[in-house]
Design goal:
Elements: H1 3-25, E1 42-50, E2 56-72, E3 75-80, E4 85-89, E5 92-97, E6 102-108, E7 115-120, E8 124-138, E9 147-159, E10 165-175, E11 179-186, E12 193-203
Antiparallel strand pairs: 1-2, 1-12, 2-3, 3-4, 4-5, 5-6, 7-8, 8-9, 9-10, 10-11, 11-12
Length: 205
């Protein structure tokens, strides 16, 4: 009979340790909402192609829309109209590849800026280096924002037969309250603009 209070105290002590450990596990890291993701959000872009002299070759349009959400490993993801599966994560804006069963960073968080991915193909190897500006940069001639975050992608292609290396730059400009405002693709090994995606209208809830 004298052992019961001791056993009860020991049980309460173990229970308090368990509850304390559960409270620690529930701490959630803040997530930067780089792209506003909600079903129904939509962005429409003009696509302008240029020749190496800067003259316009063609124009077309492109629409991106969040069509639905889904759960993957108990985490909410959003499916775009082109089939991409995306979400805002502690590491940045990421997309999920079903074939690999892994997520890849598209727009890195400040802590993840400078990462690289390598892809092996039959005739060449592609390296993509992801970087972001520390703060906002000027965004001239945009009707939606005068400043934005700049994400740059250095695409290095190495031909296996010749070991020749070619570099292409892509720069994307994003504001968290709107989304991607502009994307600039440059000709390989050049600072000449090849293609631009320019936001013309959007709907964000």
């Amino acid at each position: 009979m004298k052992q019961q209070p001791l056993l009860r105290n020991f049980t309460l002590f173990c229970l308090s340790l368990f509850l304390f450990s559960c409270e620690k596990e529930e701490v959630i890291e803040p997530v930067e909402a780089i792209i506003p993701l909600q079903v129904g959000n939509e962005w429409v872009y003009d696509i302008i192609d240029y020749n190496t002299d800067g003259a316009v070759l063609s124009t077309s349009s492109f629409r991106r829309q969040v069509v639905k959400d889904t759960l993957i490993h108990k985490t909410t993801w959003y499916i775009l109209n082109n089939g991409m599966i995306v979400r805002n994560d502690k590491d940045g804006y990421v997309h999920y590849r079903k074939d690999a069963g892994e997520q890849y960073i598209t727009y890195p968080s400040p802590e993840m800026s400078g990462i690289a991915y390598g892809y092996q193909y039959s005739s060449y190897t592609l390296w993509i280096y992801h970087r972001r500006t520390a703060g906002l940069v000027a965004l001239p001639n945009s009707k939606y924002a005068s400043q934005a975050l700049e994400f740059s992608f250095e695409r290095q292609t190495e031909q296996k037969a010749s070991s020749s290396l070619s570099t292409t730059w892509v720069k994307e400009y994003v504001t968290p309250d709107i989304g991607m405002i502009r994307t600039d693709w440059y000709y390989a090994d050049s600072d000449k603009l090849m293609r631009r995606y320019e936001l013309v209208r959007y709907r964000v809830q």
